[in-house]
Write a structure and sequence with these properties.
Cytochrome Bc1 Complex, Chain D, domain 2; 2 domains; two-stranded antiparallel ribbon
Length: 398
């Protein structure tokens, strides 16, 4: 075979190989190496809060109900030992939460960081960090979805629906308000019996529920407290103003923080007007050291409800266990779990929610995101504390 023919054959072979190679590479780029497009939430997935709360159909608000509910909220007569009120762990100055990792309820004395157990004591710390009551009137509110206040998810594990049901749960819980003197099955009967014996409460319940012969009942107790709690709202943050059309409500840096909040994936769970999807997620947050046993969360899989991001300036420490004292620590926690770390040794990698492990939080974004989160603060909420309560007990308990 001549040299010329050999050269022609080799050129043909080279062209054929090159062509197959290009086809192969093209195929791989369109399949194997093609990256999935990352879905990034937008500002349309967030939203401003309504200016007013919605009442459930069976508990329309009245000034009389609200006035009664306020007194009940601050009156320790609702607790088994008459030593703690709802407001003991949900203090106005702390955004109706408190600055403790987990609360000291029954058999406690003092306020804030000075609160401690009395001696002797056999009552444990409250199981979880005290969530703020502020804006719980909007729990369950999602973007472009029908809202029913009667079915709004409550508590870290969503074990109650609606503020009416939520209002009675702490009274029945041993370490929160019940104590060991009464059983869960009869403590509410005891509380109602106490209220009936107080003339001022008989009059206040009659005014709040004038159409009922026996106005003091467990149901009306829950309705009055819920009516009051629905007045505890903060709906005029600078972010709300921005969403309502004031483009100057946020600074350039805060707008950059908002963009970082969206791009990193925070809004996949912290969405809607309340910055919560009101779903359960397993994140592997470390347990509090205040309890011996681990907190398995809802469904025994370490899942907890996404908390709101509103008014975070006043509600530290954060997470269900109260383990993080600053927002920077919270965001660094998310950076860690996205990097594969497992902060809670009892939570396995396969249990972790992929929405959290796939976050793209970097150290460079943290300060900008925190700057944005501070636009969600509104200090103009009702902080009125009654000078006295009808039981004559100390307001807010011991």
């Amino acid at each position: 075979m001549s040299g010329f023919v050999i050269k022609v054959i080799w050129k043909f072979v080279l062209v054929l190989v090159l062509g197959l190679s290009l086809i192969s590479c093209g195929g791989e780029r369109s399949t194997t190496f093609k990256k999935e497009e990352k879905q990034i939430e937008t500002i349309a997935d967030l939203g401003a809060l309504p200016l007013t709360a919605t009442d459930p159909a069976d508990n329309p608000s009245t000034p009389e109900k609200v006035a009664l509910g306020r007194l009940l909220f601050f009156d320790p007569v609702l607790s088994g030992n008459k030593d703690i009120a709802c407001a003991t762990c949900h203090q106005p100055e702390f955004n109706y939460a408190e600055f403790l990792e987990t609360s000291i309820g029954v058999n406690g004395v003092g306020r804030g960081q000075n609160r401690r157990f009395s001696d002797p004591n056999d009552i444990p710390f409250v199981k979880r960090n005290s969530q703020s009551v502020l804006n719980t009137a909007f729990n369950g509110l999602l973007k472009n979805a029908e809202y029913d206040p009667a079915s709004a998810p409550m508590f870290w594990d969503m074990r109650a629906r609606g503020l009416e049901q939520q209002a009675l749960e702490p009274i029945k819980t041993l370490e929160e308000m019940r104590g060991s003197a009464f059983h869960e099955s009869n403590v509410l009967d005891e509380v109602v019996s106490r209220l009936v014996k107080i003339p001022a409460y008989r009059e206040l319940f009659s005014r709040a529920f004038p159409s009922e012969a026996s106005s003091i009942s467990q149901l009306n107790l829950s309705r009055a407290i819920a009516a009051y709690e629905r007045t505890l709202i903060a709906t005029n943050t600078r972010f709300d103003q921005y969403m309502r059309g004031d483009s100057n409500a946020l600074s350039t840096g805060e707008k950059e923080g908002l963009n970082a909040f969206l791009v990193t994936g925070c809004a996949k769970c912290h969405s809607g007007p309340m910055f919560s999807d009101f779903k359960l997620h397993t994140l592997g947050v470390p347990d509090t050291g205040n309890r011996k046993e681990s907190d398995f969360g809802a469904n025994k899989n370490y899942a907890f409800r996404t908390p709101s991001l509103r008014n975070l300036r006043y509600t530290a420490p954060y997470m269900h266990s109260g383990k993080f004292t600053t927002l920077d620590q919270v965001l660094m926690f998310y950076e860690d779990i996205a990097g594969g770390k497992l902060p809670n040794p009892l939570v396995q990698a396969k249990q972790m929610d992929p929405l959290a492990t796939h976050l793209d939080v970097n150290f460079k974004d943290i300060s900008r995101i925190v700057e944005f989160l501070n636009t969600l603060n509104d200090d103009s909420f009702d902080k009125i504390i009654p000078e006295s309560v009808p039981s004559g007990l100390p307001v807010m308990g011991r």
